Amino acid sequence: MRLGIQAGVSLREVIPQLSAFLDFHSTLSVDLVSDHPCRDGLRAQVDLALQIIKPEEAKAAMRLITSTPRVLVASPKYLVRKGMPSSPAALIAHSIIVGPSPSGGRPWLFSRNGKAVSLSIDGKITADACEMAMASAVSGAGILSTGLWSCQAEIDSGTLIRVLEGWDMGDIKLYASLPAGAASKTVARSFVSHLASEFHKQDLYIELP
């Protein structure tokens, strides 16, 4: 099975599920293929593609697997140096790290208690890979917007701290695509069901269509 994982998908959540799946399919071999979200070739190369896209871009053949809250994080040393922003508007005075995102440079949206705020952000650091964006945040370079699943371990360890935690920034949604449609391999369909089931067990903000 050729499994395509788009840059920006949390490998911390997906790859461990692959290991468990292989325990039940001992004769199966898996070829992992990565691709950047700005390129369109991923789905044509694989049996199953896992991608983060905007809901309005999802096609009928795609299945919503799970979603995770978008959050802001920064290192303790950055916040000691620059201070904790008290509102979305205060982010203008901060160094922002922009990682790969399906929003494509659109303004950041915040909501709380019925109040909505839209903020255009210029990145002090722009990275096209989550690992580079995360390393920049951990090093104290600025405030990063990312999915909670990508930084939960750092939050738990105190390496990163939530910023503007009381504000809702929406969700990051993970979709599965079977490029071959009805002719897709049975094992690829099984892995989609396996992912959805395991995310549900772990309460990873599951949303089933």
From TrEMBL:
- Pfam families associated with the record: LysR_substrate
All residue ranges annotated as the LysR substrate-binding domain in the record? 2-198
The entry assigns this protein to a family as follows:
Belongs to the LysR transcriptional regulatory family.
Protein name in UniProt? LysR substrate-binding domain-containing protein
Source organism per entry reads Pseudomonas reactans
